[in-house]
Specification:
There is one protein chain. With 251 residues, the protein is mostly beta strands. The chain has a single domain, classed as Beta Barrel (Porin), CATH 2.40.160. Helix content is 15%, strand content 45%. It has an 8-stranded antiparallel β-barrel with strand order 1-2-3-4-5-6-7-8. The chain is elongated and about 70 Å long. The two termini are 14 Å apart.
Length: 251
Amino acid sequence: MNSGSFVKTAMLVCGVIFSSNVMSQSIFPKYELGIYGGTFIYQGDLTPSPIGSYRFITPSFQISVAKLLDENFAIRANFNRGDINGDDSRYATPNWRRLRNFSFNTSITELSGSLVWNFYTYTPNGTKRKLSTYFFGGAGISFLNIKRNWSRIDTTVFNSKTVVLAGLAKDTLHRLPAVIPVIPVGVGIRYALNNQLSIAAELTYRITFTDYLDGFSKSADPTHNDYYYGYNIGLIYTIERNVLKCPRFKN
């Protein structure tokens, strides 16, 4: 085979391989790594607000690893760590809260997996758009360390004949959960600084199946479960995936 035929054959093979790579979407980034800081918001019996308690803001952090499937979808693994807190004494109204005077602190370590829908994050040729949104949902487990305190209750008001003290007797006999299933769902917005680095902000709501995130149920409101959600802001690092480049031959 002469040099001219070799060059033509090499170019033909290279073209076939290149076309195959494009068809398999090899031009898209393969992985994304994220690190975030934020806070958890408690939504339960020890706060009078239906949107949760914003009086006990403590820091949380999240680490994520995502594998992009195409320009629209990715699967993501998440690690979250933070605390939720509540204290009846911090609320002047209704006045019975300061008389009941329950408080708690729960540390949460969460592991979850999510399906992410990137809403116009990438163009069909694999390049990033500057500003985009994404939605996600999945399942996970949360490891809890619940510390509750009922020692400050005013027993002259809440005596053995009241629902609160009768319920507290049941709560103290109830084994507090150490591991619970959660369903995280959320929305995010991201701004691309360049091809590899983006700023992202997320809101994640966790659906739970327990009324004991705060350690109390029968002595508080046993008709509703406790929940928590969180705000995060951080950086996403995109690991670029190189497209096969054909060698150049000199005649």
